[in-house]
Write a structure and sequence with these properties.
Blueprint lengths: L1 H5 L1 H9 L3 H4 L1 H16 L3 E5 L3 H15 L4 E5 L27 H9 L6 H8 L4 H8 L6 H17 L1 H14 L28 E4 L7 E3 H7 L6 H9 L3 E3 L2 E2 L6 E3 H5 L3 E4 L3 E7 L1
Parallel strand pairs: 1-2, 3-9
Antiparallel strand pairs: 4-7, 5-6, 5-8, 8-9
Length: 281
């Protein structure tokens, strides 16, 4: 316990609150390292820099119990420009599994990268030449959006495969024009062969035509589409400026969406990443 209390990470957390389970995490991880060492001859444990104290506790336990040497290797945590960790415990985080984060949503997450993070993420998450990452990341808005498209495409291709990346990109540019439809910005990315216009592959929300009448209130529409779980959530989305229909911001959650708009198979968007195409059936 004294060893744990001396760790800087525990000192900081004790000031804001630490659960019993969190307090014992060092013990659990140290014992886990010991078992891996005993059963599988595991001599190296890797992790984010916030795991340093836990890993060192494991190497110390192995040294004391087995009289042998084990090692730890940590690396900086991945954060955005605001210092927020990109991890599974952070709100809005993306998963590699398509079951947890649909491919299109995965693509959109990286497409909406903050300007200041583009160059760094291109270097970290793609296999493009470093010189190309530098050049793309140095583009000025709005051309920088092409670098974001390339980042999103390459990330999706690596995680989900080329076909899925092609579909995600073409679906996106079918509704939101490409930042470089004529391929004027050179790149070695496979995105260049796809052009700047595509066919929609957005998730589709079907709505019974008989329930619509001459139109539908915005709040009801966003609930029916599955983008919101309740009218209250839809109201908050509109008030926070995150609701869009065909890329036009919705400012009144009581507004009626006309039957003409509904017949046009509009694209509904909640925040920066989630969107569906609405179809009347």
């Amino acid at each position: 316990v004294n060893r744990m209390l001396s760790a800087e990470s525990y000192k900081i957390r004790l000031e804001t609150g630490l659960s019993f389970l969190e307090f014992n995490y060092m013990l659990l991880q140290a014992y886990d390292f010991l078992k891996l060492f005993e059963d599988y001859n595991c001599t190296l444990q890797m992790g984010g820099q916030d795991q340093w104290g836990n890993i060192v506790a494991g190497t110390d336990l192995i040294r004391r119990k087995m009289s042998k040497q084990a090692y730890g290797l940590t690396f900086p945590l991945l954060t955005d420009s605001a210092g927020n960790k990109l991890g599974k415990t952070v709100a809005g985080a993306v998963w590699l599994s398509a079951e947890k984060t649909p491919v299109f949503d995965f693509y959109q997450f990286w497409r909406n990268t903050e300007d200041v993070d583009v160059k760094r993420f291109l270097k970290m998450f793609t296999f493009l030449p470093v010189e190309e990452c530098e050049r793309l990341g140095a583009l000025e808005p709005p051309k920088l959006n092409r670098a974001k498209e390339i980042l999103a495409y390459e990330m999706t291709r690596i995680v989900h495969g080329e076909e899925a990346a092609n579909q995600a990109y073409l679906s996106a540019v079918a509704h939101f024009p490409s930042a470089d439809p004529d391929n004027e910005i050179p790149t070695t990315s496979g995105i260049a062969k796809l052009g700047g216009r595509g066919e929609s592959n957005l998730p589709v929300a079907e709505l019974d035509r008989s329930t619509v009448g001459e139109g539908m209130p915005v709040a009801d529409l966003f609930v029916a589409s599955g983008l919101c779980q309740s009218k209250g959530e839809a109201k908050r989305l509109v008030m926070q400026g995150g609701a869009r229909i065909n890329d036009e911001q919705v400012k009144d959650f009581l507004a009626m969406v006309s039957i003409e708009t509904l017949n046009s198979e509009p694209v509904l968007k909640a925040g920066k990443k989630r969107m569906v195409q609405l179809k009347l059936v």
